[in-house]
């Protein structure tokens, strides 16, 4: 059995999380935060705090050795203005966490309130308060192809629909944390933290400290899940710990409690979407006009690629000849938005997959049939004009239909519904397409690196800066080595992430781990295969060889073989080495950003899903009874793992579909902890059938494709479509919670 | 000023040595040792020890998860036989070092004494006790060229001389230490220790644990000097700590105290040398017959390359047409011998440089003139038949003569001696040649690696597994980067050594750091230069460029320039990277091991030295008054550093010349601590004039050559020649201590 590389430390409780680290002389820092969404700092009075036991220092922005932040990014400590509730204005450092917390409460911050912008859809109004002096627009991306206006005017049927999605959060079990130790001798600051983007974090910390990047070393601790959240949030924790450590010459720990994590942590972008769609009598799509407004909150981090992804994927996995999409993200004085598993897709997937059902319902057609009529095809242009290849939607849909047996299931549901007046069952479907990695329009860099080192005893270490966030990233790279070099699983060590020794492999986001980092490791393995093949030639008299189970043999002639270990010995005996650095960068893509047309992503993944729900039509309680998820992963290194990742994605999607929403009032989050911000428990999980297809892609190692984010993207629309099917009530504003399902509208809590 | 990369932590006391590491739950291990030089373990009774407070376990060889040792290498714990005093037979682990020590004293080891071999020169006798069942000979190397027998018979003058050199030790300020932490979750054992050979140590630890090499990670701590001693001694400490940590699942620290370090630590090979030399009336060498016996002690580590080096360098830096050298190293039941700064050279340099003076005295010639008559020349064969190139002995000797002013100095000395009856001054000289790295005959691997990583902000980290042992190895690689890429000193970080992330760069021994590791880093820098040059071409329209002070400019036309930072930005903007792995392996050398003739080393370093001493002829007290050391370092990255390294080498040489000797009695060391094993203090240091020549070599980066070992090699003969010049008494058995100088023979202490 190939035990996951990260599993034993976790199940034995031996895994070391940042909060487990205790260093001699360590101090603890606590942030004093803004209580208002917009204001100017008049004064900070730390005199009382400084008198309290154990308190060492109270730092403010002026103490930062470098710069508080890049423009429009969240500051480590605000120099003058606060732009959202939770903004850090001072940092109390004490000998214990309790003393730091007590003193933080005693710091008096005098804030002059300024007008706050809380409504994203008002952000671009003439009279809107400016969150940043340079204007409230963060990003604008369009996809304009054909003539949507004319096509819509000519279309036999037109529907206009407005959808909204809520502000939700990652809810990792581990909150944000970092331990920094500045070494006054070497000048190096070692930051140990659970971060999915070690290199970008190093940059932020070095800017905070005003030192060269190589003076900061980021070493990953065990990560208690990321979902996109162990990113800029960790940069803040790390920078604060680092500045305190630097200024006090003592190690410093910063750990947020759950309330702080909810208050400060980044969120999924809320979306306000207006769709206009034209179609013919069969349901064939003729044109779409889409206007998307994303609430970026007070600062920007991954808002650019999230916005660009929405502009591209807004039409769903369908052919639309005339498209006019505009996605605009704006600043508001709300807690700010960043990457969250799916990265824009779950929002627009909810819109497009709801819309397909609405079209089907309007025409009285089968929702599956309407999708099949429109879905992407090989050799045909996507809505954004990319000539598609390797579209596996037909296979996904076929696998779904086989598993679900729609006719039989609908019949059973009809029987049930006929005999139940309060409780109604329904069936919903959704299709998935998703560009892998950052793509041509995004501002992320589609590169990755991997390092391999075979030792004289045949054991091998594999390095990649892919973070193990629980997704199995560490095992994925080990599988690549195992399959590429035929080295036994037990002899492969995943060596963690240390920015000092590794090449920047980009952040662990955007479902790019397998294709890009796996690809980079595969290339490194390829270099070693090549060298080993040359050293094996004196034995095998050919370079057409296969690596398997610790042997190299002539391809197709396994009798002609040599033990891999013998060849490894020869390499070292010849004073040669077996280290390799692999690198993978996406090729430039023909894509016109001005109109958003062209090859938006190098590759795409596809899936299909169906949900069966039971709705209590009086209370609005939705029970997700069963869920079918088909995902084409190209090549499953470990099928059980892939299925596990699908189940996790379904769980997260259930929360997005029917439970989760951060309720805001005057810029303040109202549900402060997990007693009021409800996420699914095991009891909320549907019976789930993950179906893993393996249709090899052309970019990932062994044809593998990404699965991390796709697993959650279309769960909400499948469920909401099922709710509509059951209750006859179309929920267009996520989540489909009690009020929405029972009353048809949201109830504002306060 | 280019501050050494290791200096601030050391002078501020912030440097973390292994003994400074304290981990939660850490336990402490103490070794129970053999008290006899040869015996069989009848039984080990740990019952009393196990009852003592804080004691956790007492391990014996049977508890070792893997193997106790490779054949004929020192065992982690002896399974059945002990072969020298100090051999480990049990390991007591307790909650504190004091408890471990107390319990170790309570372990009863019943040893059956066996006949002990204590005299190396009797080791190959028929009836000699066998130290290892396979025989007492460790290694035999010869250099046989021409017909020495016939040439000696025909020579006008023949001298026969016997020289011996003592058993001495490294005396690093830091004793042997290691901290191991086994992680039961990941299965990885992290070993933090001060080791100059991180990769070989990893192998030993993994064999002890019976695990793949990649399950062991060696991270270097600050090293409190090595001089060759932070090698197999550390492997033992590390293996013992690792086995205890593995078996108890707790971190374990092993630190030897000074007595243990003296008892167990490896030593410089004692040498018994018989020289027969034939020469003509001018002092021209005609033939040499050399018989060398090295006392390897009970086990072997670096005895092979030490023996081979002696067979090659035994004739000194002179042309000898007929040579018959045989160097044989043998086992004895003494503490064992390993690498020690100079690695064989100081022993034979003492012999050959004494011999040259004896020839000069015999003929009544000037010792300098006799040397000049015989010294190596470009285009002429060495004694071992290598056609020499880049011989810089003439320049070294010229620089020495200029600095010393022999005629004037001899005159002053004559005046002094004429007026002092009890106190006599004398002047001695010596010449140096030394092969760099391991060479063709040695069993070391002449390879090295380096890793460079330029970050987007232009800072760079440089990795190499060269250990910073105080020699400035970390600064050397930084200098290579600085000079090769024109990156400012402050932006270059030396990133320490971690076996998980680096390519094996071989051990930090044999004066191979600068040429090989520096060379590997230079190659890595070359890869980055090439890439940066390509990216600079659009600005400069040429690839003939110079990197200097953060700019790239057209060579010879500095007006045509572009900032390096701009080009670095372009690289990253193009999704490219600036990481490089450099590797350097010595080419195969034409060398015939069977007769020891050919290109023994890739390259050589040269030097010349003179010492002026004052001898109290009644007490035998030698005061080394002045010392001149000329060394051709090829290219001095930092001249003050080079001079400092020379001073350090002189200090060590003074100890070897007039003070140091481990006195043995029945296999037991008699001088147990630094109160009886005397090493030089600051007051013993002569006024030293280091003279650094920079005549570029063809292999090292920027022409640099090694200096670490050469700095100490010929100090003793220069001093002993001066003593002979002053006192008229030739000391042929080092050290030239009171008894030898005053009485003419050694006094056995017990």
Rg for CA atoms of chain A: 27 Å
Tally of DSSP β-strands of chain A: 30
The order of strands across the largest sheet of chain A is: 3-5-1-12-9-10-11
The number of helical elements of chain A comes to: 19
Pick out the low-confidence regions of chain A.
Answer: none
Beta-strand fraction estimate of chain A: 25-35%
- The oligomerization state is homodimer
- The rough form of chain A would be described as globular
Class from secondary-structure proportions of chain A: alpha+beta
How much helicity do the residues of chain A have? 25-40%
What's the mean pLDDT score of chain A? 95
Main sheet attributes: strand count, strand direction, barrel closure of chain A:
7 strands, mixed
Termini separation of chain A comes to 53 Å
Work out the largest interface and the residue count of each chain: A-B, 57 and 57 residues
């Amino acid at each position: 059995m190939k035990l996951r590389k990260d599993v034993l430390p976790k199940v034995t409780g031996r895994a070391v999380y940042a909060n487990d680290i205790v260093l001699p002389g360590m101090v603890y820092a606590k942030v004093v935060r803004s209580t208002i969404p917009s204001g100017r700092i008049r004064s900070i009075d730390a005199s009382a705090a400084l008198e309290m036991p154990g308190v060492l220092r109270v730092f403010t922005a002026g103490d930062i050795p470098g710069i508080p932040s890049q423009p429009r990014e969240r500051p480590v400590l605000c120099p003058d203005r606060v732009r959202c509730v939770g903004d850090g204005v001072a940092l109390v450092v004490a000998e214990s966490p309790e003393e730091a917390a007590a003193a933080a409460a005693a710091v008096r911050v005098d804030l002059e309130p300024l007008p706050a912008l809380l409504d994203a859809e008002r952000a671009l109004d003439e009279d809107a308060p400016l969150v940043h002096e340079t204007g409230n627009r963060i990003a604008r991306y369009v996809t304009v192809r054909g003539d949507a206006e004319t096509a819509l005017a000519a279309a036999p049927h037109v529907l206009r629909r407005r959808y909204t999605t809520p502000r939700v959060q990652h809810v990792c079990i581990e909150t944000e944390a970092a331990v920094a130790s500045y070494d006054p001798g070497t000048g190096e600051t070692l930051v140990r933290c659970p971060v999915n983007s070690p290199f970008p974090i190093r940059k932020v910390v070095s800017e905070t400290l005003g030192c060269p990047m190589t003076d900061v070393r980021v070493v990953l601790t065990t990560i208690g899940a990321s979902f996109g959240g162990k990113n800029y949030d960790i940069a803040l924790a790390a920078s604060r710990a680092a500045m305190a450590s630097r200024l006090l010459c003592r190690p410093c720990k910063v750990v947020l409690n759950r309330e702080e994590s909810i208050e400060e942590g980044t969120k999924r972008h809320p979306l306000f979407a207006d769709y206009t769609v034209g179609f013919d009598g069969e349901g064939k799509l003729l044109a779409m006009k889409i206007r998307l407004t994303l609430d970026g909150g007070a600062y920007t981090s991954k808002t650019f690629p999230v916005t660009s992804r929405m502009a591209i994927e807004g039409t769903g996995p369908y052919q639309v000849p005339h498209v006019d999409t505009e996605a605009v993200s704006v600043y508001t004085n709300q807690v700010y938005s960043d990457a969250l598993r799916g990265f824009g897709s779950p929002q627009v997937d909810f819109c497009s997959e709801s819309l397909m059902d609405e079209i089907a319902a309007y025409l009285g057609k089968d929702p599956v049939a309407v999708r099949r009529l429109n879905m992407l095809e090989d050799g045909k242009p996507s809505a954004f004009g990319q000539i598609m290849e390797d579209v596996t939607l037909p296979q996904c849909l076929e696998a779904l239909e086989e598993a679900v047996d729609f006719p039989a299931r609908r019949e059973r549901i009809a029987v049930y519904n006929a005999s139940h007046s309060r409780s109604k069952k329904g069936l919903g479907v959704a299709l998935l397409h998703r560009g892998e990695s950052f793509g041509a329009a995004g501002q992320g860099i589609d590169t990755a690196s991997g390092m391999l080192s075979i030792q004289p005893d045949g054991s091998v270490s594999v390095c990649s800066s892919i973070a193990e966030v629980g997704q199995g990233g560490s095992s994925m790279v080990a599988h690549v080595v195992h399959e590429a070099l035929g080295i036994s699983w037990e002899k492969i060590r995943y060596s963690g992430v240390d920015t000092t020794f590794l090449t920047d492999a980009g952040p662990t986001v955007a479902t790019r781990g397998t294709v890009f980092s796996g690809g980079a490791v595969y290339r490194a393995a390829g270099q070693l295969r090549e060298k080993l093949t040359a050293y094996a030639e004196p034995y095998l008299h050919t370079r057409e060889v296969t690596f398997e189970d610790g042997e190299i043999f002539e391809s197709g002639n396994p009798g002609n073989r040599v033990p891999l270990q013998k060849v490894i010995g020869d390499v070292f005996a010849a004073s040669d080495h077996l280290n390799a650095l692999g690198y993978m960068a996406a090729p430039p893509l023909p894509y016109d950003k001005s109109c958003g047309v062209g090859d938006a992503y190098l590759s795409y993944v596809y899936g299909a899903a169906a949900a069966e729900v039971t709705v209590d039509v009086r209370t609005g309680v939705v029970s997700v009874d069963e869920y079918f998820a088909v995902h084409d992963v190209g090549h499953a290194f470990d099928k059980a793992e892939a299925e596990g990742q699908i189940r996790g994605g379904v769980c997260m999607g259930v929360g997005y579909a029917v439970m989760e929403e951060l309720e805001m009032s005057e810029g303040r989050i109202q549900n402060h902890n997990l007693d009021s911000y409800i996420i699914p428990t095991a009891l909320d999980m549907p019976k789930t059938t993950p179906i893993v297809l393996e249709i090899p892609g052309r970019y990932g190692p062994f044809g593998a494709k990404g699965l991390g984010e796709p697993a959650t993207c279309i769960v909400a629309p499948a469920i909401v479509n099922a709710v509509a099917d059951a209750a006859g009530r179309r929920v267009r504003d996520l989540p489909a919670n009690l009020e929405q399902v029972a009353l048809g509208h949201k109830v504002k809590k306060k």
